[in-house]
């Protein structure tokens, strides 16, 4: 790891915050995708049932 000197805390906290935000974005995207997929399947079955 490179020597960051007196800015080590700032740089490492920025990396940590970025990592947390990226993980949150991926999790929310997957969660939303599953929710939309369930809604689409429900709608498709309703349409098929009603003709």
UniProtKB/TrEMBL annotation:
Q: Which InterPro entries match?
A: Haem_export_protD_CcmD (IPR007078)
Compartments where found: Cell inner membrane
What's its membrane topology? Single-pass membrane protein
Q: Which residues cross the membrane?
A: 12-31
What is the predominant subcellular site recorded for this chain?
membrane
Q: Which GO terms describe its biological process?
A: cytochrome complex assembly; heme transport
GO annotations of cellular component type: plasma membrane
Print the keywords alphabetically.
Cell inner membrane, Cell membrane, Cytochrome c-type biogenesis, Membrane, Transmembrane, Transmembrane helix, Transport
Q: Which NCBIfam families match?
A: cytochro_ccmD
For this chain, the family text in UniProt reads:
Belongs to the CcmD/CycX/HelD family.
According to its UniProt entry, the function of this protein is described as: Required for the export of heme to the periplasm for the biogenesis of c-type cytochromes.
Name of the protein this chain belongs to: Heme exporter protein D
- Tell me the name of the encoding gene: ccmD
């Amino acid at each position: 790891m490179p020597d960051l000197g007196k800015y080590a805390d700032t740089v490492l906290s920025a990396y940590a915050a970025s990592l947390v935000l990226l993980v949150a974005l991926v999790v929310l995207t997957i969660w939303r995708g599953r929710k939309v997929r369930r809604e689409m399947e429900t709608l498709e079955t309703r349409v098929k049932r009603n003709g």
